[in-house]
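Cont'd.
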Amino acid sequence: MTDLSATTWLGLPAATVLAVLLASVLCGFVGTFVVLRRLVALGGGIAHAAFGGIGLAVLAGWDPRLGAAGVAAVAATLLSALPRERSDRVDAVIGVLWAVGMAVGMLLLAGRSGGDVDVEGYLFGDISSVRPSDLLVLGVLVLFVLGLHAVCGRQLVAIAFDPDHAALQGVRVHRLSWILMLVVALSLVALLALVGVVLAIALLAIPPLVGLRLGRSLPAIVVLATATALATGLGGLWLAGAFAWPAGPTVVLTGAALLAISRLGRRRSSRDAR
Amino acid sequence: MISRMPEKELLVRFVGAGFRFDRDVALEAVDLEVSSGERLAVLGPNGGGKTTLLSLMLGLRRPSAGRVEHLRLEPALRRGYVPQFPAFDRSFPVRVEEMVLEGRLRQRSSWRADQGECRAAVRRQLERLELLDLRRAYLTELSGGELKRALVARALVGDPELLVLDEPTASLDASARATFWELLSELPARTTVVLAAHDIAPSTFAPTRALLVDRRVRELGQEAMDAHALLCGHGRD
């Protein structure tokens, strides 16, 4: 069997390339729903709350990803349970989650950096040291997301577009929204391994924004977002290696540059074509 | 031979139902029954609670007091809704024909669904509402009136048994209004139509009952309905 840690593809460790490939599928599928449902700020809140989970897990001697996933899932559940009449409070709840998560994480991890715990790695990611278990987590999540789209893709689009109408059509809006929120939370946790809590949400937001700019139909947007995420990941890592820059920030700024370039052109109306 | 009227089926029952937004009471103490085949006019001032009443009737909101019972569960009641203000984001990447097809989501979700028949039904509605040329357009490219027609098409494409229309003719031009009233008159007798609009008149929509909604719901008698028809005489052709 090929040893991924010793193999290089495109001048990068094979495990890293594989991680970027899997993360790109998440960015394309999950990220597009995050942007279309306007969940970017909420995702940022969940990612930062997850930092508190990392602190708790380290304190308890567990795998930090387990703590991050647990807290992210609880935060996603709480946010999706907010009644519709209280939706105006969502931004405040996100702000509280964001700050409290970071505060708990920093308090619990204070003084641990430099020892057995890589605090910077959790904050900004360490894509160059992708472990087989990171790949397994990403792989399982990608399979789940693709399966979810295959089984209830129409319903997911319906609740993203018009939840009231979806409810009239018999879609279990609350349940499916909760599943979608859990997927967003777990995707963020999987991305933490690559770019850390501070930058993870950028990978779910930037590629779909490029997709929305360049594509018109939903399938085209998802494909373009996935391709953009791949170009962002591989391009960013290549730049980071070539100029000895930190990988996470370079990846995010590569995505930002692609977003800026995508906004240079003018969109064509499909009415113009008739 | 004596033809028998189809038996009426009770669809929705309000029992002392109320709804409040924080401290603001939108509706209170509503007792109301809606049955199959009714043509219900919902009248009342702006802010009186008409839209909230319709949302409760459709099951989109839960009452904060009392209860609203939806009595037909199996097979699920086919519901069509034209909201006064669509809650969705018009920049969502969906074409007109795809949005109208969402009106058949329930039928399409079944593995036995005839997808071709669903698409044919969408085409019929688009043709009827003069939207066929715009079927590939995105929602951002539509005018307010065109979007309203698309919403009407989406509500009708699923052959609704309960059709709820909240100011459906607002932003429609005269020709589109005429088409809309014609479409309503062609609906099967068993379809329940609940209509909130300011231009209800005998020539456009003949309700079997009329409700006046102003925080409380009061049923109007025939005389009051006639008086209302006179007051909004612009609905008469």
